[in-house]
Design goal:
Order of helices and strands: HHHHHHHEEEEEE
Radius of gyration: 19 Å
Oligomer: single chain
Number of strands: 6
Mean pLDDT: 84
Strand content: 15-25%
Structural class: alpha+beta
Distance between the termini: 36 Å
Length: 203
């Protein structure tokens, strides 16, 4: 955790935080116009990612034992702020949304199968996530969502519904789909298990 939040100062972690800020200023901001000037976007991003990883800058929010920088909330927020000066910033260190939140969720709650199939390629920057929630009638209001995930057997679900917008779908390999697993449950459940669950799957 970062200094200022009741945590001991970690000079190494602070240096990594400063290096992240330098990457944003010195590499990502100057690279912004390159794709607009005709250079291949994936090539530019791959170059930035190579430079980032060579400096130990990768997934600042993830624990070090999982390949990240192990930054606490405050240090991570400062790095994100600096990287935000360029649309390539977060992508250069694999901390773009909605991939970042999905990685943390899989790390904390995923099965071993899900970690191997989904988390591992996300951590390596090989795959991208899209977040599929918005529907025609309900919009992004989960309490009005009609898409269902019907359980088939003990381990599988069959998705039944239609989504009208999925964040980052154009570049995604994996989708997190929000769907109702208890379609007859009340719209709002204060004390019982939630009727809406995320379902993850690959193309």
């Amino acid at each position: 955790m970062a200094a200022g939040q009741g945590e001991p100062r970690d000079p190494k972690r602070e240096r990594r935080s400063r290096k992240g800020a330098s990457l944003g200023h010195d590499e990502c901001v100057p690279a912004k116009p390159r794709p607009l000037n005709g250079e291949d976007y994936k090539t530019v991003l791959a170059e930035l990612r190579t430079k980032a990883r060579a400096q130990g800058l990768w997934c600042p929010f993830m624990p070090r034992e999982h390949g990240g920088m192990g930054l606490g909330p405050l240090a991570n927020a400062l790095v994100q702020m600096e990287l935000g000066e360029s649309h390539l910033g977060a992508l250069s260190v694999n901390t773009q949304g909605p991939d970042d939140a999905t990685m943390l969720t899989l790390l904390e709650h995923g099965t071993e199968y899900q970690k191997e199939k989904f988390l591992k390629p996300l951590l390596n920057g090989e795959k991208r996530i899209c977040y599929s929630m918005t529907e025609k009638a309900a919009g992004a209001d989960a309490t009005g969502m009609r898409s269902r995930a019907d359980k088939v057997g003990n381990e599988k679900y069959r998705l039944n519904g239609e989504k009208w917008f999925s964040s980052a779908a154009s570049v995604a390999d994996i989708a997190v789909v929000m769907a109702r697993t208890a379609p007859d449950a009340p719209r709002r459940m204060a004390s019982r298990p939630r009727p809406v669950s995320p379902i993850i799957g690959a193309r």
